[in-house]
């Protein structure tokens, strides 16, 4: 029995290993940074975010690896299905169980809508929409980032968030969805074998590298400076420059110097860690964006709390005082 459980744990870890950093660490970093800024992290909150992060990853990875056995046999032969450590029937059963558990736990924590969004875009993998680069990089990845952020925000701030924060998260997620196209350079061999239409397959490896040199060298710093870190730029510009610049320099250098697809595994890892740094910077960014709607709603509530009839009476009194003062001045000039 003990050996069986040990074997199952090893299989589950092998299934999760490739995406564990990009799923678990952002969830945990977001919760810790936002809760530290607006209230205080709690042990129950940490356990909840870890559980949701693991279910988030399992809900997708089981679907992804079920439909990607042929591709994984080329790019990632160590995974459970291509290596034979898990059979297809067991993976299907695990997929059903973890997706049901993820939605159930999400509803209990008040984020059922965001969990359902993640499951909806993951179904696109079952329908093989992921073979098109636009779906993968501009719908699936941004939606996954939005779900990670809103999960961390809701758990850290008791389910409260502003419209400005949601808009910031949507724009930021699309930016990192574009940057994540670097992973397609890494996986070009498997994509060609399975006829996946990614940019490196369409444009060629060399042209794709040049395109992303422009994106990471020109477009990326502009978006970072004037949108992503704009809310806290005046207060934390020195820290932000020192944090983001090394990532940009290393990514640009590797895109320019490394010509083989396999060399860009580290390049993609740098993009992931830049994303995690953005999650950590929510310690500074989230309070600024969370307070926006609060101030506006407070102003509206103050205005609405004043009875219109009172406003009308005050206005009439002011006009009466003005008329009396005008008549008094005219009388004095007549004398």
Please explain how this structure is put together.
- With 335 residues, the chain is an all-alpha fold.
- The chain has one domain (2-291): Orthogonal Bundle (Farnesyl Diphosphate Synthase), CATH 1.10.600.
- It contains 17 helices and no strands.
- The protein has helices at 2-16, 20-38, 43-67, 69-75, 80-83, 88-108, 112-126, 133-156, 163-179, 182-186, 188-193, 199-203, 205-228, 233-257, 265-280, 282-305, 308-334.
- The chain is globular, with a radius of gyration of 27 Å.
- The N and C termini lie far apart (111 Å).
- The relative contact order is 0.10.
Task: Describe the structure using short key phrases.
335 residues, mainly alpha, Farnesyl Diphosphate Synthase, 83% helix, globular
**What integer value in Å does the Rg equal?**
27 Å
Give the topology string: H per helix, E per strand.
Answer: HHHHHHHHHHHHHHHHH
Report the total helices. 17
| Poorly predicted regions | 293-322, 327-335
Protein structure class:
mainly alpha
CATH topology: Farnesyl Diphosphate Synthase
Can you tell me the overall shape?
globular
CATH class group: Mainly Alpha
């Amino acid at each position: 029995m003990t050996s069986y459980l040990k074997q199952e744990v090893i299989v589950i870890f092998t299934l999760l290993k490739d995406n564990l950093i990009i799923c678990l660490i952002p969830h945990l970093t977001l919760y810790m940074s936002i809760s530290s800024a607006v209230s205080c992290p709690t042990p129950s909150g940490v356990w909840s975010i870890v559980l949701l992060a693991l279910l988030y990853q399992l809900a997708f990875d089981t679907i992804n690896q079920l439909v990607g056995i042929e591709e994984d046999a080329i790019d990632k032969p160590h995974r459970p299905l291509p290596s034979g450590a898990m059979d297809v029937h067991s993976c299907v059963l695990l997929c059903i169980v973890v997706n049901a558990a993820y939605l159930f736990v999400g509803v209990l924590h008040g984020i059922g809508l965001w969990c359902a969004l993640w499951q909806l875009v993951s179904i696109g993998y079952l329908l093989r929409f992921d073979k098109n680069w636009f779906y993968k990089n501009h719908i699936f990845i941004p939606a996954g980032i939005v779900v990670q952020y809103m999960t961390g925000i809701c758990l850290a701030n008791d389910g409260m968030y502003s419209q400005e924060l949601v808009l910031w998260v949507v724009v930021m997620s699309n930016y990192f969805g574009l940057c994540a196209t670097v992973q397609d350079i890494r996986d070009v061999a498997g994509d060609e074998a399975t006829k996946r239409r990614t940019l490196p397959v369409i444009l060629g490896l060399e042209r794709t590298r040049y395109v992303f040199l422009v994106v990471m060298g020109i477009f990326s710093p502009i978006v970072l400076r004037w949108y992503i870190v704009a809310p806290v730029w005046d207060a934390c510009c020195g820290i932000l420059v020192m944090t983001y610049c090394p990532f940009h320099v290393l990514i640009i250098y590797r895109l320019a110097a490394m010509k083989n697809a396999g060399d860009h595994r580290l390049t993609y890892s740098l993009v992931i860690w830049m994303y995690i740094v953005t999650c950590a910077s929510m310690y500074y960014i989230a309070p600024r964006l969370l307070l926006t709607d609060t101030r506006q709603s407070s102003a509206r509530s103050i205005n609405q709390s004043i009875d219109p009839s009172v406003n009308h009476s005050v206005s009439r009194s002011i006009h009466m005082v003005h008329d009396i003062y005008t008549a008094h001045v005219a009388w004095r000039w007549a004398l």
